[in-house]
Amino acid sequence: MEQERTRALSEVLDQLEASAHGESIAIEEVITTLGRKSFASLMLVFSLISTSPASAIPGITATVAGIVFILVVQMIIGRKCVWLPDFITRRHMSTARLCSGVAWLRKPVQFVEKFLKERLTFLFHRPWLWLPLILILGLTLFMPFMEVIPTSGSVASAVIALFAAGLLTRDGALVVASLLVLLAVPVAVWYFGFSS
Question: Per residue in 58-71, pLDDT tens?
Answer without folding.
Answer: 677 888 899 999 99
